[in-house]
Amino acid sequence: MILVFLGPPGSGKGTQAKRLSVSKGWPQLSTGDMLRAAIQAGTQLGLEAKSFMDKGALVPDTVVVGLIGERILNPDCSSGFILDGFPRTIPQAEALDELLKKQGRSVSRTILFEIADRLLVGRLSGRRTCPKDGSMFHVEASPPKQAGICDSCGGPLVQRPDDQESVIEKRLQVYHQQTAPLVGYYQGAGILRAIVASESPEAVANQLAVALK
């Protein structure tokens, strides 16, 4: 099964993708992770992406789609995978559909994580991340055992710059302008399922299980 997780930043897409990846064995594919891995490996696409990133420019869709095309040929993607954070725009969605079509595949289901903006600001501004191992906490909802310290590795937790309130509001604005139109795109394809992302992670996981049936 090929899944696209669609929703604003902080809606819980990453959390549910990780859970589903563990239970189903479908890898969670993040374009950011793929870009970093390709650059580190020195692949042709990685070097091309680096040339744009070094100039502070956005990596073109053709490069990102190319990276996805390479990644999903790996054996661990044979039974399915979860796209988390891609596509972000309709042109990206169209490029993804064309890529999968060439491989005789298609997106099976798109899951829309619905949640009010006001709730997202609280979620994101309270988020604390471990730079070392990527563990994530929240000062209220899921605090670490020791304030400011990662439970896993004992390293210091930080607030990412893009989790500050002024930046969050801008990120949400960009989401509504660029990514929200994808709702109509996938509705038209008949593969969109919406879930209430404001509930507990367990309740959201239960909704997700139903949406995938």
Description:
- The chain has 213 residues and is of the alpha/beta class.
- It has a domain at 2-26 and 79-116 and 165-211: 3-Layer(aba) Sandwich (Rossmann fold), CATH 3.40.50.300.
- Helices cover 47% and strands 14% of the residues.
- The chain is built from 9 helices and 7 strands.
- The protein has helices spanning 13-24, 31-41, 44-54, 61-71, 90-102, 117-125, 165-179, 182-188, 201-211, and strands spanning 2-6, 28-30, 81-84, 109-114, 127-129, 136-138, 192-196.
- The strands form 2 sheets. It has a 5-stranded parallel β-sheet with strand order 2-3-1-4-7, with helices on both faces. A two-stranded antiparallel ribbon has the order 5-6.
- Strand 5 and strand 6 (136-138) form a beta hairpin.
- The radius of gyration is 17 Å and the shape is globular.
- It starts with a strand and ends with a helix.
- 27% of the residues are buried.
- The model has no long low-confidence stretch (mean pLDDT 91).
